[in-house]
Amino acid sequence: MRARGRENLRLVATVLLAGGALALVAGWLLGGENANRADAVRTGGLAAGSIVALYALWLNDRRRRVDEERQALEQARQELEGSRAEHDRERAADERFLRAVELLGSDADQVRVGALHALAGLARSRPGYTQDVLDVICSYLRRPFHHPRHTEDLDAEQVREGARWLQVRQTAQRLIADLLPAAGTPDAPAYDLDLQGATLEYLDLSGKLIGHLRAREVELHESNSVRGCVFRGPVWFTAGRSRGRLHASGAVFEERCWFSRFTAGGPVDFTGAAFHGETKFASSTWDGEVTFQDAEFGRDVDFSESRFGGGLDLRVAGGTLIANTYGMRVSTLHDHHLPASWQLDTTREAEFGLVRP
């Protein structure tokens, strides 16, 4: 009301000022010699009109500034409401995350499966939680676990309970694979996985983009795959064990790759894999067939004190391989393909030959 009253006063003042200007200019012109009444009125009208026009310009400018201030206030209000809504969503997401983590400790299989799916759903709806969710799922897989088919001295009830736990763990493995981006996704984040000491069966991460993989002392059962994966960070399989097949064909290791003291009881396939960083297979044991056919090595490889008890194919891309082969032994009872400059010394053992580059 006060603003409208001030506007009315300004309008009245402008009208009075314009009328006064009209009277003043007209009177001044009419008071002179040879005064022309029409010219005097016209000139006075122009003066009055100029005052009214100036007032109109000022009024339009003021209204524009008022509209801009109103829009700025409205935008600030919307931003504040958006910030409050985002805060509420984050708080709800935090509560969902904590609740799901709590439910992972349940004794009921279906509750643990539901908690895992709740975590995965949170990561899909709130991508900022993806690494945290992966950390929690990996932590779940790192929990001590006795495989029901590969642990001795288990009674029937322990075997049944172990089978139920195994199903939940395999659900966790599938959710990890679902949350990882495909290797060829542009600008995709490379998430880290910490599976140190985990017991895994049928883990399939084929074609995924992964950052840092910690799999020290991992226990791999049946068939597991990192085929076609791209690893942006270091990869550690130190002192791990594979009791079945391990598929790593076409995998790309951009940084160091460690298989030191690794034990493989079944076939391992590195066909077409690319090792760009420091690579070690030192003190490792391979009882099944191992192939590196068409694999690429960007740096020297460490095969020192390694033992290959099955077939070994080292027909790498380019045909040249520079490696530390001190104490490296290869079975003479199986087919093997070694670089042309390598020889097997069988003077010490009949079944294994020492590699002499």
UniProtKB/TrEMBL annotation:
Coiled-coil regions, chain positions: 59-93
Q: Which Pfam families match?
A: Pentapeptide_3 (PF13576)
TM ranges: 12-31, 43-60
> Which keywords annotate this record?
Coiled coil, Membrane, Transmembrane, Transmembrane helix
Q: Which InterPro entries match?
A: 5peptide_repeat
The source's domain of life comes to Bacteria
What name goes with this protein? Pentapeptide repeat protein
